[in-house]
């Protein structure tokens, strides 16, 4: 059995910066409200007037950097795993788009639909393929274009101010040293709460025809909906559980964590977790202030930045944890 290890990381965010004050042109909100409740100062939103970025193309841009830094070529990649909740098309998914845009051989491409935990699920799946020896190098991408589908009005403000666009990517490679790389991953779900953070239509549960026929001005089913306080309460519990589960599976204590990269859902959640695990500021990486919540892209963007800033070094114990829509949650523990 092999281990898998991240050998290259990359990120891409759209150029267009949208500050909290910029949001006031569409909705009744304030910089104070947003910063106090979420920690967010600004986010990137694709500007369709000046950019042709899509979920897949942003993923490709991040992937190119990750592949180059890994010291491999696109032809060395055996498999693509693409995590998103905002694919370019209803079907097919983003994985095949990446395979095409990167002009890769006809390798397999898999899409992961686990929202905020998408990258954790994607890494775990990639790790299993590498462990069994089936693949050697896997490109794992998390990418989101939220801005195209958010309700830019006071009605939608509870959700709209939180989400941002961007992509992150990692090349996961076979590692013969069993003490290095991904040490464990743990995945969970609780579908009973599926509707607490969801976008219901258009889908097979709510066809476009029905939405158009009803033509109901109060219909918000085709915008993301979140029961914020309910999600928040579950998030703090599940984040903690996932981290504890990952640590105990490896006989590690919280003091052993060198870097915790939580999914960037809300700075208040990250701070709660930091306090609970008694971690110093330099042991928890946060960038939600600059990007908002980029769902499946948030962990790979944060991990890339932490690595670029020299905050993740060889031998470090790195813990990734996420919680989100589904509900789904999980953790990955790595030795860098
Ligand atoms: O990534 C996936 C997981 N996601 C999460 O973990 C997110 C978890 N939830 C949260 O982070 C928080 O619940 C939010 C940041 C989403 C919301 O914060 P909150 O403290 O739970 O606020 P709330 O939704 O209870 O709203 C409080 C008030 C309401 O007004 P009233 O009814 O008290 O008069 C809202 O209408 O704030 C109002 N409000 C806003 N005001 C200004 C909601 N959104 C806004 C806004 N600007 N953008």
Sequence-ordered SSE layout with sheet pairings:
Elements: E1 3-12, E2 17-19, H1 31-38, E3 42-44, H2 55-70, E4 79-83, H3 94-101, E5 108-112, H4 118-131, E6 137-144, H5 157-160, E7 166-175, E8 181-189, E9 197-198, H6 208-214, E10 225-226, H7 228-249, E11 259-262, H8 267-276, H9 288-291, H10 298-308, E12 317-324, E13 328-335
Parallel strand pairs: 4-5, 4-6, 11-12
Antiparallel strand pairs: 1-7, 2-3, 6-7, 8-13, 9-10, 12-13
Bound molecules: oxa(dethia)-CoA (UT7).
Walk me through what this model shows.
- There is one protein chain.
- By secondary structure, this protein is of the alpha/beta class.
- It folds into 2 domains: 173 residues, Peroxisomal Thiolase, Chain A, domain 1 (3-Layer(aba) Sandwich), CATH 3.40.47.10; 155 residues, Peroxisomal Thiolase, Chain A, domain 1.
- It has a 5-stranded mixed sheet, with helices on both faces.
- Helix 7 runs parallel beside helix 8.
- The site of oxa(dethia)-CoA (UT7) has 21 residues, from helix 1, helix 5, helix 7 and strand 12.
Key structural traits:
23% strand; 13 strands; single chain; 336 residues; Peroxisomal Thiolase, Chain A, domain 1; globular; alpha/beta; binds oxa(dethia)-CoA; 2 domains; 5-stranded mixed sheet
How many structural domains in the coordinates?
Answer: 2
CATH architecture of the largest domain: 3-Layer(aba) Sandwich
Query: Which residue ranges are poorly predicted, with pLDDT under 50 across at least 5 consecutive positions?
Result: none
Largest sheet: 5 strands, mixed
In terms of structural class, how would the helical and strand content be classed? alpha/beta
